[in-house]
Design a protein that fits this description.
By secondary structure, this protein is of the alpha/beta class. It has one domain: NAD(P)-binding Rossmann-like Domain (Rossmann fold, 3-Layer(aba) Sandwich), CATH 3.40.50.720. The strands form 4 sheets. The chain has a 7-stranded parallel sheet with strand order 3-2-1-4-5-6-11, with helices on both faces. Strands 7-10 form a two-stranded parallel ribbon. A two-stranded parallel sheet has the order 8-13. Helix 1 crosses helix 7, helix 4 packs parallel to helix 5 and helix 6 packs across helix 8. It starts with a strand and ends with a helix.
């Protein structure tokens, strides 16, 4: 008998990737939920429910109705600068709603899988944080994500946290862009772009992140797992790789420093995630960055 997975935020990039991979999964039945109407072009192989995760009553009703064995929470307020201005909304989405979902998961005995971020770290040092590293947030967004993690660890009976970093990819209905597509679009339009060379990350293909979350459910693995790409680079290097892959003019890419951007929220300079635990325990095997760009190209053609 198949087990049930309920996902939140199914209209987002990761949510749509999970929907694609779970709609035909041999082991699971899928309940996809989002705050608005279903935007995926894939309409078969799952049940869709409208769900506002900030509404405790609605969360209890939907989870009680479907009795999932696993809940994967991808929904969050992720605009780092907006979180500095809209702190109350940020706490509602990234902390309060997590508690509502955890409470509902506990009632039905569901394993709660929560998405988090490399931004829980201060980025001071050489980066490549493992799961045991001590968090030290430097923005309100990061504070809220760490608080969400603490809610999960304190209250969930069965839990996992998947930390990730710079997620990119293409789905049928893109609600927002990502750094890869932003660089590609601007260079194709002949626009000069300034890209920071003092922020280092391990960019993550959305398909890989979805697979990592599903592996957690398949193996019923509990605890914190880093689920990211394996290639460590600064954002300027990333932009040059994008330019090279699509044969675009790299001379349009200028290196800059974070301090020149005047962003409301501080970013950790050097993060990157050590994925060896996920590789060993889950069998997680992400694409290289170049392979990820090849996958993006295929997806652009598929959804064009």
């Amino acid at each position: 008998m198949k087990k049930k997975i309920l996902i939140t935020g199914s209209n987002g990039l990761l949510g749509q990737k999970l929907l694609e991979q779970l709609a035909s999964h041999a082991q699971f039945d899928l309940i996809a939920t989002a705050q608005g109407m279903n935007r995926s072009k894939l309409k078969e192989g799952y049940i869709f429910e409208v769900l506002d995760i900030a509404n405790a009553k609605q969360v209890q009703e939907v989870v009680s109705k479907h009795q999932p064995h696993y809940i994967i929470n991808t929904a969050a307020m992720t605009n780092v600068d907006a979180c500095e201005y809209e702190k109350e909304l940020c706490l509602i989405a990234n902390v309060n709603a997590v508690k509502f979902l955890v409470d509902a998961a506990n009632i039905v005995g569901a394993h709660f899988i929560h998405l988090s971020t490399d931004f829980v770290f201060d980025g001071v040092g050489k980066g490549m944080y493992d799961e045991e590293a001590t968090p030290n947030p430097v923005s309100f967004y990061a504070d809220s994500k760490l608080m969400g993690e603490q809610v999960v660890q304190t209250f969930a009976k069965k839990w996992s946290i998947a930390r990730t970093i710079i997620v990119y990819g293409v789905v049928s209905d893109m609600s927002r862009s990502n750094v890869i597509l932003w660089v590609k679009k601007n260079l194709e339009e002949g626009k000069q772009i300034n890209v920071v060379d003092d922020q280092f990350r391990t960019p993550t293909l959305a398909d890989d992140l979805a697979r990592g979350c599903i592996l957690i459910a398949e193996k019923e693995a509990q605890g914190i797992f880093n689920i990211s790409g394996k290639d460590f680079m600064n954002i300027y290097e990333l932009a040059l790789k994008v330019a090279a892959f699509w044969n675009l003019n790299a001379n349009l890419v200028s290196a800059s420093k974070s301090e020149t951007l005047n962003q409301p929220a501080k970013r950790p300079p050097v993060t990157g995630l050590d994925i060896s635990k996920a590789q060993k325990i889950l069998g997680y095997a992400p694409h290289s960055f170049e392979e990820g760009l090849q996958e993006v190209e295929r997806q652009l053609k598929r959804f064009s």
